[in-house]
Design brief:
By secondary structure, the chain is of the alpha/beta class. The chain folds into 2 domains: 2-41 and 177-255 and 367-417, 3-Layer(bba) Sandwich (FAD/NAD(P)-binding domain); 82-172 and 260-361, Polyamine Oxidase, Chain A, domain 2 (Alpha-Beta Complex). Helix content is 36%, strand content 23%. Strands 1, 2, 10, 11, 12, 13, 14 and 22 form an 8-stranded mixed sheet that branches. α9 (248-255) packs antiparallel against α13. The longest helix is centred in the last third of the chain and has 18 residues, at 400-417. The two termini are 25 Å apart. The protein binds flavin-adenine dinucleotide.
């Protein structure tokens, strides 16, 4: 069958675009390399965990319009995250005022900054000297942890907005984020969309108004247009071969920032952290960031390592990574490693760089991203379109909201072209 539109990728962006285009009456099919939908929304339902757990996206970072309206429309409940944000520095929990004062000064300088530069250049230029050594370290840890950024490439102006909104309300979806993509998938099917799982797109031949996609299993799909929603990591990897080549688009792909992340899900028999009101812990341990499931009563601790450190550790053996995680917790809670290990009932470590159809975590803006995104959001020959979280230009970068927004945008663009 010949389709109007083929979409590659059943993540948030692809499903959102598909739902919109089906509603407009287009005949749409979707190719997804994995056996299921969701992409980086990956809720695990394993026996060893007390409840479904999030290997990928977990939080709704603020009052995000599209995500929250979809959840409300679908009747999927979400709840505010609770607990204190605690910094642990050199074994000291919530170390005094100095950190706060320096951070306030950094934000003040940042607000006045006009010219873009990398985070590393900014720190070196405006906060040199030994008195700011801790600030430079803390800022690097924050940029790597939260944004997965390489501070030698990431744009300081683009993180400014996000760092100002740090204190926003956060939510979780009890039962799992997958309920959102399951809902979108159901809508697409109900509207007649055809979805092919285990179908890894490989070769794309195109000319104006005509696309032929061949999968790894040599299946062929034809359409008038194609929307590609794979991650920046997959785009960069060359997994998709375009014929003819993409020229400026290919060059733009290389300018995007795409970080690495390792997520640690540790289920314990007893909540040894209880009584301290912990929501999040930010530390200088090898696995620096940890969080609880508050307000849910669950003996799960989640560890997070992002940015270049995660890229470096992604090839380590699972046993070494577990040791590192337990060692970090033992140091934070001043417990013996063996005691902690005996408390562990189940675990999962997800190295996102090794996920074969994702190849990383999420995007951050380099000093070249703005121009690159401008190029990539223009279709090639009015036929090949790109969407996905890496192509979002608003203030919620690297999120599910970003992915959904780009899915909506690409559908709008196609609708407008055909008017
Ligand atoms: C560990 C982690 C934690 C995160 N935490 C949060 C969070 O708390 N809150 C938040 O809002 N966001 C979070 N994010 C980011 C969020 O998950 C992503 O921004 C969003 O899910 C991306 O959606 P997407 O549709 O753009 O891409 P994807 O979800 O990557 O979808 C692309 C799809 O394309 C498929 N694909 C790839 N190659 C091919 C091919 N050749 N042929 C066919 N199909 C292919 C993939 O299998 C995938 O399903 C997190 C991400 C990670 C990795």
């Amino acid at each position: 069958m010949k389709y109007d539109i083929i979409i590659i990728g059943a993540g948030a962006a692809g499903l959102m675009a598909m739902k919109e285009l089906l509603a407009d009456g287009y005949r749409v099919c979707m190719l997804e390399a994995a056996p299921n939908s969701g992409g980086r929304i990956m809720t695990l339902k394993e026996k060893g965990f007390k409840t479904p757990v999030e290997a990928g996206a977990e939080f709704i970072h603020g009052n995000l319009p599209l995500t929250l309206s979809l959840l409300q429309y679908a009747g999927i409940p979400f709840e505010p995250v609770e607990g204190k944000m605690i910094t642990v520095h050199k074994g000291e929990w919530d170390p005094g005022q100095e950190h706060e004062e320096h951070w306030a000064k950094l934000m003040k300088t940042l607000r006045k900054l006009k010219k873009d530069m990398t985070i590393r250049t900014f720190l070196g230029e405006y906060f040199p000297g030994t008195e700011y050594k801790e600030l430079r370290e803390a800022t690097r840890r924050f940029a790597e942890g939260f944004d997965l950024a390489d501070t030698g490439k990431a744009s300081i102006l683009s993180v400014r907005k996000e760092w100002e909104h740090e204190e926003q309300m956060q939510y979780r979806i009890p039962g799992g984020y997958c309920q959102l993509t399951d809902y979108l998938l159901r809508l697409c099917r109900r509207r007649g969309g055809k979805i092919y799982f285990n179908s890894c797109a490989r070769n794309i031949h195109f000319e104006k108004g005509k696309v032929l996609v061949k999968t790894r299993d040599k299946l062929k799909f034809e359409a008038s247009r194609l929307i590609v929603t794979v991650s920046a990591g997959v785009l960069r990897s060359g997994m998709l071969h375009f014929n003819p080549g993409l020229g400026a688009h290919q060059a733009a792909i290389r300018q995007l920032g795409f970080g690495s992340v390792i997520k640690f899900l540790l289920q314990f028999k007893n909540p040894f952290w209880k009584g301290r009101g912990i929501g999040f812990l930010f530390s200088d341990e090898p696995i620096p960031t940890w969080w609880t499931q508050r307000p849910e009563k669950n003996n799960l601790l989640t560890g997070w390592l992002g940015g270049p450190a995660a890229a470096k550790m992604s090839s380590e053996k699972e046993g070494s990574l577990l040791q590192l995680a337990l060692g970090s917790l033992a140091s934070l809670f001043q417990m013996k490693g063996a005691e902690l290990k005996s408390q562990l009932s189940h675990y999962k470590i997800i190295r996102w760089e090794k996920q074969p159809y994702i190849l990383g975590g999420y995007s951050y803006n380099t000093i070249y991203s703005e121009k690159a995104i401008e190029v990539l959001t223009q279709p090639v020959e009015d036929t090949i379109f790109f969407a996905g979280e890496a192509l979002y230009t608003g203030e919620f970068q690297g999120t599910v909201e970003a992915a959904l927004q780009t899915g909506l945008e690409v559908a709008k663009k196609i609708r407008k072209m055909d008017k």
